[in-house]
Regulatory LuxR family protein (Actinokineospora cianjurensis), 864 residues
Amino acid sequence: MTARPELLARVHAALVDGVVLVDGPCGIGKSTLLESVAAAARTRGDKVLTARGHRAERWLAGQALADLLAGEQADGEVRSLARLARRGARVRAARGTRFLAVLRRWADTRPVLVVVDDLQWIDAASADAIAHAARRAGGRVRFLFSGAAEAIPGERAARLAVPPMTAPEVVDLLEPHGVAERAATRIHSESAGNPAVALAVCTGRVGELVDLAWSRLSAPARETVLVCASAARPTVSLLSRSGRSNAAADIAEAVRWGMLVVDGDTIRFTPTAASAALALKSGPAAQRRIHRRLSAVVTSAAEAVRHRALARPEPDLAVARALTTTARATPRLPDLAAELYLLAADRYPPHAVAERAESLVAAVEAGVGAGVPELVERAAGAVMAESPTQAHRVRVRTALVRHAGQSAPLMADVLAAAESDASGNASALAAVHLWCSYSATLAGDARGADEHAVDAVDHARSAGDRRTEVLGLTLRARASRLLGRGDWGAYLDAALAAPVPDTAGMLHLTPAYLAARFAAYDDRLEDARTALLGMLGAAEAGPVEDLMGPLCSLSDVATRQGRCVEAMAYARRAVHVAARAALSPGPGWYAMATAELVGGDLTRARSYAEHGVRSCVQEGNVVFRMRHLHALGQALTRLGETSAAIAALREIQHVESTLGHADPTSLRWQPELVVCLVRTGEHAEAERLARTARDRLGGSGERGAGAGLDRALAFAAAAAGDTETALALTRRGAAVFASLGQPVEQGRCLLVESTIERRRRHYTAAAGAADAALDLFTGISARPWATHARVAAAAIAGVGTTSRELTATEQRVADLVVQGASNREIALRLYVSTKAVEATLTRVYRKLGLRSRAQLVRHLSGQA
């Protein structure tokens, strides 16, 4: 729970009102949360009483109450209460009243916290006494429950659902088990963020988990779950049509036990493998019966064909060919198409060798596009075990390269075998060299990427393969720009001039996508956004990996345009897509890190960047490792960890120098390092770094990259005492960013201007710049920057004021407001009610002549 501080803070804040009921599916972490809150209360010196309900003990009268009072038997009143707890209903009122009296007596000396886990299983006698106390205690007696019982806490209870773990939290959870980041993110998706399910998948205990949940389900719920396990896309409405009249209640029961998750009408298993394990429980005859029933009620023709085939599992040439034909006609549902191809391969009779091989290869290709790794591995293994033709081997290897995603080592292994398979075939060699070029690009080897791209273009021209030729020219353009050569435009123009047919699964290699990326590098953000939105619309109907490039790039563009909410939405979707399809988490996590830096939370940004660095190291992805290091450097700089930020940014500097990268527009890390070096007193090196980067910009120095360097140089000039030069530089940078439509960078320039003016003791000008930055950041929901600007504005606005007229309590409440505490958090820390805090703040506002919380923060921060 130390890794989930926000969740703990929510519980502590909710406890201010006295009673909190924690709920959530089995395995989500309710018990761990309660233990953590209880431990924290003991550390503070509170008296903590704990009990846990057990299904087998719910008939033992007074057992939970006895557990709460264990260890307190030396107290005569407690002994009397313990005896009373064992007696029948006729002493119900006395039992509750006595328990409440004991709690209040203890609360006279220190706060009391009553913690009951699995509330639904406690005995009725204890439930009565606890409910009576929870309704009436108040003051310094608080109650924390977990479970599904509705009546126990009474009307006072604050309901709090334990949310699923985020992907980085699951990665941290599984790290002691040696799980790689990419696999951990897949497990996060499979488990829907449920830590117990994630651990079961990691340790190979899915069968035990399924058996445990199955044993707790009622008979009707079991029948409904079996129908779910047989459906390709289970929904509540499908279950109702299949005869499960109480489907909603049955599904809710399975959700409580952590077996299913529901999103609207859609149902999925956690983990996905649970569906196959459960289908086996019904037996072959029952499975065939369920499939026959579903074939009559599904609304999709492709799903109907699937169910009819599963109802007849024996080899049948006509059924196999029908499955293959249906799969070809289902390109918009690649996961279903992949399954149909695989079913077809299983149903071809022994003499249909060629047709079976073609279905298996098609299953691999469709499975890669759908992001279903288990199916891909099964189909690919079957192809390679059956002496495939050279063409089939090359197609499978090429599909597996796509399956490797952003992992350079995985690509290298597959490509080595693919090159051998492609020997003597110009078209196949062109494809192999194309992917070798892309693999080298990910590894940061721009020179190697260019060499392979040249070979790909040559072989493609020899074979008349126009598509591979165009994609090879695109990779040449990418490598050329990264190396700082001037011929990249010619390569890109040549690629753009030719139409590229059938690039499904390779959108990120197309000239149109690269042109959009270069437009973003050149600060033509609206052009880039328009192009990327068009690509995203087309990618929705294609392979899943085609979604990643537009989503991540749109998040990046939205971040720079100040569309903070939009950036977060694109980034979250990219993370979700990558996890569900077992793609590399690096690109999605980079999008999340950069979006959090601008519109979210700095600590979360740091977490995503740190996990991203580790993931990219594991996968040999140098390009995204440097991007994550840049995001990490920014987060660390703003969190005040300058030395750590310098280390991260120096690593980028070293890698670029080693690999010969010379494009300062794609990854603008130099301004951040300049600021850090100035902070540590390394002024000469800071200025030298900025000047070198500016020289490399050449004619593009008046755009965003140059303006960022101007801002960094202004920071350096101000530190050296040359405030006039500093002001000129930062104002020029602000003007450039305003003209480019980049409000975040413009606001950062205003913050630097405010700092410079404050050093000159021009407080009015300083306040004006800080207020302008605050208005800018607030208007675009750039929360971390708005907080920064608010502190800067408060440091100026209240200069010369005093708050000596406040009482000690009023001053304490006001100080906690300045520290960012909510009214609930203040009440919890001061052991008063929320209403008392509100009344105190009203008096503070009146005494100081203020009207709002924001004005109070400015007033007191300025005084400090």
